[in-house]
Amino acid sequence: MSNCTLHAALLLLFKVRTIISFSPCIMQYCPAGSVTDLAKAMRERGERIAEDVIAYILREVLAGLSYLHSSCVMHRDVKGQNVLLTKTARVKLIDFGMASGQ
pLDDT at position 43, please? Predict the structure, then answer.
């Protein structure tokens, strides 16, 4: 599934290196947190996520899922906590622990 990191809506995985029995991953940094974090923070301030922002996030998630499906991979755990935002508001789909593929 290493070629799946080529789509803009998927989190970049830079390097995996096995050290004894531990395999750390170096991944793209997404300092803005998850969509769930965004929704909670806005709710605490009495605000709501604008409809056009929701549409943008959904469009990017669906583009990433479409790419995965065309590569015969199913994510199977899509939720706000698994959608991260970069500093420039790019949407990244993460957590492929439940994913299945051919």
Answer: 96
